[in-house]
Specification:
Blueprint (H helix, E strand, L loop, with lengths): L1 H4 L3 H8 L3 H14 L1 H4 L1 H13 L3 H12 L6 H12 L6 H10 L7 H14 L2 H13 L6 H13 L5 H13 L5 H13 L3 H13 L6 H14 L2 H13 L6 H13 L3 H10 L5 H13 L3 H13 L6 H14 L2 H13 L7 H13 L3 H9 L7 H14 L2 H14 L4 H13 L3 H13 L8 E6 L2 E6 L3 E6 L1
Helix pairs in contact: 2-3, 3-5, 5-6, 5-7, 6-7, 7-8, 7-9, 8-9, 9-10, 9-11, 10-11, 11-12, 11-13, 12-13, 13-14, 13-15, 14-15, 15-16, 15-17, 17-18, 17-19, 18-19, 19-20, 19-21, 20-21, 21-22, 21-23, 22-23, 23-24, 23-25, 24-25, 25-26, 25-27, 26-27, 27-28
């Protein structure tokens, strides 16, 4: 009996293949023996290899195999659509899906799930809406996997329009059964659109429904706490992690370090960092940025050195964190050395952020001419933030002549941007040149240029108080 059910050796080999050369061997043997044309199971196994290895070469080979299948079934289509959805070219999944709709194979819940995931991958809102219509028409709209993917799609592109995020919430609220993926998709949608107060409310709802959060949930929650300054809520999540034995490592460790740093408790951030069972580059970056944020520049440099000793390769974000730490602490020689390391030792092309840190550092220590020379090395349209930083340094050091020159450059870039007017006005005010201050304000009023009001937030007893300059206090219950 067992012999009658056993698979041909080549098909078994196809299932076990873990590399392109092995897949090539299996494909060649299937063609030679004729099994390829009368055994869809075997050909589907060849295509499925591309799902977990969606690089261009594997995908091209999988597509070639697919085109030679005489009667591809829904699994054949779904496997290749899924592979494209996981690749760097998810839009190709759409073309294959449209081909599938031509028949005779019908789309099922799996193919809909994978093609909607592809839409999320390339921000295909219109395509996603059309496919959503097909989902409803074909009666698979209540499948939890399809609904989760729709929420993910509308939530991910919610920054384009508030209506898209509300569409995601509407689908979420109507779901008869929600799993942790459903909650994560909705929470992530709110997080991506910076609606962090909604993230916290939704997490409370999740707890009431007794849905157990996973690492994705916790990372999003900690990001919301970091943004809102909700230290108490963040500490509760930390306690929840410890109580449930989830382990502090990877992205969770990074999120905890970031949360404690941004909520003002750098000591706890360091404790989390030291106790993390596994640290990736983002965890090291997070503690370096946190230490710099709290003016512990020398400590940030020590952590950076420790990271190098352990053999980790710094990336662009690492150097932004280290340079920022040097800038805030006024560590000129160290900052210059690090900036030189970026190109000479690691072959990284400095970005505008790296230049911004160096301009800020040079400006802080009063080397305005050197800072100006550095700003001039960048294309004018690329560097408004550098000119703003330099103008701020001119104000701090009372260099009106350079401030006026820099302000003119800023106004050339964007005459409607308030930064140049405000910073130059503040420079005049610091020197008690009140007539010049009034002239700048009249000019702003004549050109109808408004300054965005400042905003700050603080958490007290589970309530986030948001203060807007000139508009009093707004309460957000969390």
């Amino acid at each position: 009996m067992s012999g009658a059910l056993s698979q041909p050796p080549t098909i078994s080999f196809t299932e076990m293949a873990t590399s392109i050369p092995e897949i090539h061997q299996a494909y060649a043997h299937l063609l030679k023996t004729g099994l390829f044309y009368n055994n869809t199971f075997a050909s589907n196994k060849l295509i499925s290899f591309a799902v977990t290895n969606p690089d261009p070469i594997t995908l091209s080979y999988a597509r070639s195999v697919f085109t030679h299948i005489t009667d591809p079934n829904s699994f054949s289509y779904s496997s290749l659509i899924r592979a494209y959805a996981n690749s760097h070219t998810p839009q190709n999944a759409i073309f294959l899906f449209y081909q599938m709709l031509e028949g005779p194979v019908f789309a099922d819940k799996y193919s809909f799930t994978f093609v909607l995931k592809a839409c999320s991958g390339f921000g295909g809102v219109q395509e996603g809406r059309q496919i959503h219509g097909l989902v409803l028409k074909m009666g698979v709209g209540l499948d939890v996997f399809v609904e989760n993917t729709l929420i993910h799609l509308y939530g991910k592109v919610g920054y384009l329009s508030t209506g898209l995020l509300e569409k995601a919430r509407s689908i979420f609220d109507r779901m008869p059964v929600k799993d942790v993926v459903s909650w994560n998709a909705m929470i992530t949608g709110y997080a991506h659109t910076s609606r962090f107060d909604e993230v916290l409310v939704l997490f409370d709802d999740m707890q009431r429904e007794k849905v157990r959060p996973d690492n994705c949930t916790l990372v999003n929650m900690l990001s919301a706490c970091a943004y809102l300054g909700a230290l108490g809520q963040g500490e509760w999540i930390n306690a929840y992690i410890n109580k449930n034995g989830k382990g502090i490592n990877g992205f969770v460790a990074t999120a905890l370090v970031d949360m404690y740093s941004k909520c003002g408790n750098i000591g706890k951030a360091l404790n989390v960092f030291r106790s993390a069972s596994r640290k990736d580059i983002s965890t090291w970056n997070s503690i370096i940025v946190g230490l710099g944020m709290h003016d512990f520049g020398e400590n940030a440099l020590e952590i950076f050195s420790e990271m190098l000793v352990k053999g980790l390769e710094p990336n662009e974000v690492t150097f932004i964190g280290v340079l920022s730490a040097c800038s805030r602490a006024g560590l000129l020689n160290e900052g210059r050395h690090i900036f030189q390391l970026i190109v000479d030792d690691y072959g990284i092309q400095p970005t505008i952020e790296h230049y911004g840190c160096m301009v800020d550092l040079l400006g802080r220590v009063g080397l305005l001419e050197e800072a100006l020379d550095l700003v001039k090395t960048r294309p004018l349209k690329e560097a408004p933030v550098l000119w703003e930083s330099l103008l701020s340094a001119c104000k701090n050091h009372g260099n009106v002549q350079m401030a006026e020159h820099v302000a003119r450059k800023l106004l050339e870039l964007n005459p409607q941007d308030s930064a140049g007017y405000v910073l130059l006005s503040n420079t005049y005010a610091a020197l008690q040149r009140w007539d010049d201050v009034m002239n700048m304000r009249r000019k702003m009023k004549a050109l109808k240029i408004n300054k965005e009001p400042g905003c700050s937030m603080i958490e007290v007893d589970g309530v986030v108080h948001e203060f807007l300059a000139g508009e009093g206090m707004i309460l957000e219950q969390i």
